[in-house]
TrEMBL record:
EC number: 1.6.5.11
Protein name per Swiss-Prot or TrEMBL: NADH-quinone oxidoreductase subunit NuoB
Gene name in the database record: nuoB
Enzyme class: oxidoreductase
InterPro entries linked to this entry: NADH_UbQ_OxRdtase-like_20kDa
Keyword Translocase tagged: yes
Keywords: 4Fe-4S, Cell membrane, Iron, Iron-sulfur, Membrane, Metal-binding, NAD, Oxidoreductase, Quinone, Translocase, Transport
Residue span(s) of domain NADH:ubiquinone oxidoreductase-like 20kDa subunit: 23-137
GO cellular component labels: respiratory chain complex I
Pfam assignment, any one: Oxidored_q6
Domain of life where this protein originates: Bacteria
GO MF annotation terms: 4 iron, 4 sulfur cluster binding; metal ion binding; NADH dehydrogenase (ubiquinone) activity; oxidoreductase activity; quinone binding
Coiled-coil positions: none
Amino acid sequence: MTELRLDWGTTYHVTVLDLGLACCGVEVMAALEGRGNGVDELAALGVTPVHGAPEQAHVLIVSGTVTDVMLPAVLATYAELPEPRYVLSVGACSNTGGPYWDSYCVTKGIDQVLPVHVAIPGCPPRPEALLEGLVALHKLVTA
Ligand code: SF4
């Protein structure tokens, strides 16, 4: 068993919390909740969204522009996730600052402050990319 492996009871039932901070967050919400946008595939993978309850989530999805003002809230949310916990960075803004890479008030990549396990490119990424990212995360934690 590796350090990253989910425990036996949660390997095939992954709870995710979407921290939607801008447009990418809307796309993730649509993918997690909307019909015909991959939700059936996500449910088949055992992916269950939780809302407003970080203590119930093992995966934090950071999607959208991380402003410096919002960064403390992102860190506080991550701190509430139980171990083992994983971070999925969704979209150019979360990955690098995206179109706002030179803004004085935007964090240039959430990986500077959190351990990102999978980063999904795009502006915004398609729902299928989120699905692929979750599959990649699953492979990572079960390797
Ligand atoms: S990467 Fe593009 S779509 Fe996503 S939050 Fe940034 S500007 Fe919006």
